[in-house]
Amino acid sequence: MNSLLSYVTDIEPLDVAWKERAHEYLETLAIPHWSLGVVMDIAKQLAAIQKTLKPTVENKCVILMAGDHGVVEEGVSACKKEVTIEMIDNLSHRGASINALADTVHADVMVVDVGVAVDLDDYVKQGTVIPWKIGYGTRNMKKGPAMTREEAEKSILVGIKAVEKAINEKSAQLIATGDLGIGNTTPSSAILSVMTGQKVADVTGRGTGIDDKRLNNKIKVIEKAIELNKPDPNDPIDVLSKVGGYEIGGIAGVILGCAYYKIPVIVDGLISTAGALIAYGLNCNTVDYMIAGHKSQEPGHNYMWKSLNLKPLLDLGFRLGEGTGAALAMYIVEGAAAVINNVLSYEAAGVTPGA
Ligand SMILES: Cc1cc2ncn([C@H]3O[C@H](COP(=O)(O)O)[C@@H](O)[C@H]3O)c2cc1C
Ligand SMILES: O=C(O)c1cccnc1
């Protein structure tokens, strides 16, 4: 593998000439001007990413990054930390929500252990988990940095490696990000607050469903972690290492990898978008390859989309993660590819354009 820096610096913005060409082509379709709205925007984005007027997104893959969080000992989640492993078991038996939803859209699910607190040998042997663990859960960010800078960088490289695997083994043409890890809404809200300047109290939500007392505690824990560690918003690796998580680094890597290899990437909920903020901070060209999957119920999520200048495709009241919203958004992206591939122009269809 190359160094992280070489991936980050080589990410190019979308080709302007292809953007224009796709735009002009879509304007010839036998429909009132741009009347398929956002679907046309996505069709244009797909064409510019793949540099063709016939983009294909047939081979789809959800890359789900899993990790644990030392900060769970502060009582920030409704669940005990062992639920991460129980959910890995459920995913391995294909009984999780992402299995059900990814199946409907014919997407593969790749589960990557980037920082789960225990060894997952049985699942690795079964072939249901990819063992790229950087650490056995992060350290408690209320007491010090969650990770070292080196661990944070390694977690990002795991995400890039996962994209390479999806390309090499599954010929992936469209990737969605997913997360799993009890406690991960806490680092996600911390990253959100640090990177967007929003107050912790305004962007911290109930995650798995905590009550008011726990929510107040969660806010205090995040405030304390930021005060103690002083993450530098201009240094995304510093933010990720001090108040982030292994799977958030992994997701940032998936997004960087997709941008590097020119693959459209659908970003899921709060945790995935925390990864997107890190990726964007490392190279703002990454946003050209992102598609905002959905709007989570978590109160801070929209601030993230706003700071990336993206509009979420779906608003379904989801607050789950795993890549569930992104998987459903794959239907819309497939629709966009179908439009640019199959809708005829006014001329080809023999339809008279309006004045
Ligand atoms: C059964 C179950 C399945 C999940 N799948 C995703 N999450 C999501 O919820 C957790 C984050 O919320 P918090 O920060 O409050 O712990 C993560 O595991 C995330 O992936 C789940 C949570 C549970 C309980
Ligand atoms: O939006 C998300 O990704 C989310 C929200 C709550 C719990 N887990 C994930």
Provide structural commentary:
The protein has 355 residues and is an alpha/beta fold. The protein folds into two domains: 4-55 and 340-349, 5,6-Dimethylbenzimidazole Phosphoribosyltransferase, Chain: A, domain 1 (Orthogonal Bundle), CATH 1.10.1610.10; 60-332, Rossmann fold, CATH 3.40.50. The protein is 51% helix and 9% strand. It contains 16 helices and six strands. A six-stranded parallel β-sheet has the order 3-2-1-4-5-6, sandwiched between helices. Helix 8 crosses helix 10 (212-229) and helix 12 crosses helix 13. The longest helix is centred in the middle third of the chain and has 22 residues, at 149-170. It is globular, with a radius of gyration of 20 Å. Bound molecules: alpha-ribazole-5'-phosphate and nicotinic acid. The site of nicotinic acid (NIO) has 12 residues, from helix 13. Nicotinic acid is lined by residues 185, 207-208, 268-271, 296, 298, 319-321. The active site is at 322 (proton acceptor). It catalyses: 5,6-dimethylbenzimidazole + nicotinate beta-D-ribonucleotide = alpha-ribazole 5'-phosphate + nicotinate + H(+). It comes from Alkalibaculum bacchi. GO terms for molecular function: nicotinate-nucleotide-dimethylbenzimidazole phosphoribosyltransferase activity. Belongs to the CobT family.
